[in-house]
């Protein structure tokens, strides 16, 4: 029984392949096919090793980028906070400031801080009175009887904050009781 993957010998089945005219002049098909297969195997092995090395380099570069992103993620936020710190230090540096000057400086510093927070996508949660209570953004501190619809905000005790649609701190609110 012959292997179906090997080509049949040239010429007569009973004839010795090395005694054929093609084999005697060095142009046999079996050695050439084996050489072609070896060359193709070497080419594919090289391509595989190069692709594997490239994938490893991409993985390594991605890991380095992740480490850098984590390490410097706060950089833009910190840069936004520096003017606020500068304003506070300038206020402290004036020993004879009047209360009006200090109040004006505090308001200016608060505006700087608010702008820096907005620039960095830190948004206030400050529900209006009579707004529907949202347990995802509000934390009810107490429930009080009120002349408004049940489960609505009566008062905001402390503002909450979001970072890109994620609650950083819920707003602390009092809620109207059901009648």
Question: What this model shows, in words?
Answer:
The chain is about 50% helix and about 15% strand. It is an alpha+beta fold and about 180 residues long. The strands form two sheets. Strands 1-4-5 form a three-stranded antiparallel β-sheet. Strands 2-6-3 form a three-stranded mixed β-sheet, with no helix packed on it. Helix 3 runs antiparallel to helix 4. The chain is elongated and about 100 Å long. The N and C termini lie far apart (about 95 Å).
Beta strands, count: 6
Number of alpha- plus pi-helical segments? 4
Computed CA radius of gyration, to the nearest angstrom: 39 Å
| Dominant shape | elongated
Major pleated sheet: 3 strands, antiparallel
Task: Give start-end ranges of low-pLDDT stretches.
Answer: 16-26
Strand composition percent? 15-25%
Strand order of the largest sheet: 1-4-5
Counting copies of identical and different chains, the oligomeric state is: single chain
Mean pLDDT: 86
**End-to-end gap:** 95 Å
Look at the helices and sheets and give the structural class. Answer: alpha+beta
Helix content: 40-55%
Please outline what is shown here.
This protein has four helices and six strands. It is an alpha+beta fold.
Feature tags:
179 residues, 17% strand, 49% helix, 6 strands, alpha+beta, three-stranded mixed sheet, three-stranded antiparallel sheet
């Amino acid at each position: 029984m012959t292997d179906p993957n090997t080509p049949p010998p040239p010429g007569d089945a009973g004839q010795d392949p090395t005694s054929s005219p093609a084999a005697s002049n060095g142009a046999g098909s079996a050695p050439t096919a084996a050489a072609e297969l070896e060359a193709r195997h070497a080419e594919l092995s090289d391509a595989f090793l190069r692709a594997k090395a490239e994938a490893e380099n991409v993985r390594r570069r991605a890991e380095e980028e992740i480490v850098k992103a984590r390490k410097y993620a706060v950089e833009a936020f910190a840069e936004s906070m520096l003017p606020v710190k500068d304003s506070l230090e300038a206020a402290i540096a004036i020993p004879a400031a009047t209360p009006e000057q200090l109040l004006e400086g505090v308001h200016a510093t608060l505006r700087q801080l608010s702008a820096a927070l907005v620039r960095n996508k830190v948004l206030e949660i400050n529900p209006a009175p009579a707004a529907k209570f949202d347990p995802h953004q509000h934390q009810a501190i107490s429930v009080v009887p009120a002349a408004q619809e049940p489960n609505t905000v009566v008062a905001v005790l402390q503002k909450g904050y979001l970072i890109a649609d994620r609650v950083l701190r819920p707003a602390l609110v009092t809620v109207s009781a059901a009648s």
